[in-house]
Write a structure and sequence with these properties.
The structure is a homodimer. Chain A has two domains: 10-155, Jelly Rolls, CATH 2.60.120; 160-239, Winged helix-like DNA-binding domain superfamily/Winged helix DNA-binding domain (Arc Repressor Mutant, subunit A, Orthogonal Bundle). The first copy, chain A, contains seven helices and eleven strands. Chain A has helices at 20-26, 125-134, 137-159, 165-180, 190-197, 201-213, 228-237; strands spanning 14-17, 47-51, 56-58, 66-72, 75-80, 86-92, 97-98, 111-114, 118-124, 217-220, 223-226. In chain A, β5 and β6 (86-92) form a beta hairpin. In chain A, α4 crosses α6 and α4 packs antiparallel against α7. The N and C termini of chain A lie far apart (43 Å). Chains A and B meet through β5, β6, α3 and α5 of A and β5, β6, α3 and α5 of B. Chain A binds a DNA duplex through α6.
DNA sequence: CGAACGTTTGAACGATGTCAAGCGGGGTGG
DNA sequence: CCACCCCGCTTGACATCGTTCAAACGTTCG
């Protein structure tokens, strides 16, 4: 599942103009406290898009003129190192906002790509700025999203992408299952695993392959299907599941 | 430099009541756009504190009723894993705000400790909330700080705490020097290095020791003194300075 | 002066990254 | 519609790196 070349223009995947009222009904959690009807839909259209799995959505450094609410599917955000290498920095899921940095910067500082097929709404920053003055709760909403993003990043770094390599892969599976719930756990390419965990793709491949031959995991239709308890058990049985970490503090 | 036991009460380190006007003069960058005189100093006192190196300042889970601006010194923030292990998640420096999460949560979600002697101002959240309504730029200021914190965390995880263990230690030294500038590079305990980089303290110790015997680094008065160029050079000469990372994306 | 703790250092095993070759699937073009 | 090709996955062999374990040293603090 490699990344597809960038669309010359997002409009290729434009589905239509959104009716925010209806969206609010369906996705109670999205900007829950927000009265989206306050958006001046005449001048600032909210459109929704569907991207196929693997599609690049944002490129690091792109001019940032909108944020996106994720209505369905999973997204990865990554950065490109000076040497050309790639590191995946976080995952986003339905209910998350993609591209928050657009609200205080003029360019995206991470690339974004669809891990699965994705459905999202594009909100021009002008629309948000407009709401900011009329909707006082929006400020708290945004603040909570920043905080949540940071906390998730911290947790991922310490609880998933740390410890012995093989353990990291297992922890990633556990994380993915919980992260995706109630949606099924999306399958992730070995290379993406490697880029998330800082392990070699060979190691990622080996661990997954071993789980498969042990009958504990299967991969069908771009889904990982496995028994969470078994993975937990393997992790627990693992010699020092990732802690030469000092206990005393 | 282990962590000192928690102070029963911060007031032990209370230096006095602050005059925000004078503080603003000295630290142009702190909440630069902010008119701190708008704080009602009668009811909501701003006090400043000095902590010795090693002192624990905040404990994960503590009730969060204030943020702190860092006027001098360096601070680490860490989380305690379920198994009791410790992972240092980020560093803060003069000009940073400690405990931003207090503004949208009722408890701190990371512990904080002084890496060096530290001087900070305590701002009750009530004071900030008060300013929020009178000072419209404060919202943007806070948003920028969240964004910055996240970007720094991303960068640290990908550019410092990744790659071969020995390279991580070197990258940490490079990072520290740049991070601390123009202040001198503070020395960091091998255990803290280990907790930041997810390597063993033995490895951290070995790399530092080797640099010392090579005459490239010395540790005096809780300072690392070394030639940045030499460390860069070592890193460059390092076999694959941390990239089995895929190039193509 | 003793105890506690962190650092240093050695030795050895195990884990993991690198390299390389073979396989398989999906997409493209004939 | 089929064949080929490209790319990612798999898998083995191997060398190296890094963790673990353990012991000794030094320093700080009581």
């Amino acid at each position: 599942m490699s990344d597809v070349e960038p669309a010359p223009c997002l409009s290729e995947f434009l589905m239509g103009r959104m009716d925010c009222r209806r969206c609010g009904e369906r996705n109670g959690k999205l900007f829950s406290s927000l009265n989206v009807q306050a958006i001046d839909h005449r001048s600032l259209a909210v459109h929704d898009y569907e991207f196929p799995s693997g599609m690049r959505i944002l490129r690091q450094g792109d001019p940032a003129d909108a944020i996106f609410t994720i209505r369905a599917g999973f997204i990865k955000r990554w950065l490109t190192l000076p040497d050309g290498g790639v590191r995946i920095v976080r995952l986003l899921r339905p209910g998350d906002v993609l591209g928050l940095e657009a609200l205080s910067q003029r360019s995206y500082d991470l690339s974004a790509g669809a891990i699965t097929a994705v459905h999202l709404c594009r909100l021009p920053i002008e629309a948000i700025e407009q709401l900011r003055v009329t909707q006082p709760n929006l400020v708290a909403e945004l603040e909570a999203r920043w905080r949540d993003l940071l906390a998730r990043t911290d947790r991922f770094a310490t609880m998933v992408a740390a410890g012995p390599s093989r353990a990291r892969v297992l922890k990633l599976l556990r994380y993915l299952a919980q992260f995706a719930a109630p949606a099924p756990c999306p399958s992730v390419s070995r290379q993406d695993m490697a880029a998330m965990l800082d392990v070699s793709s060979a190691t990622a491949s080996r661990v997954v392959a071993e789980l498969k031959t042990a009958g504990l995991l299967r991969e069908r239709r771009h889904r990982f299907e496995f028994d969470l308890a078994s993975v937990e058990q393997l992790l627990a049985a693992m010699p020092r599941s990732g802690s030469q970490s000092r206990k005393k503090v």
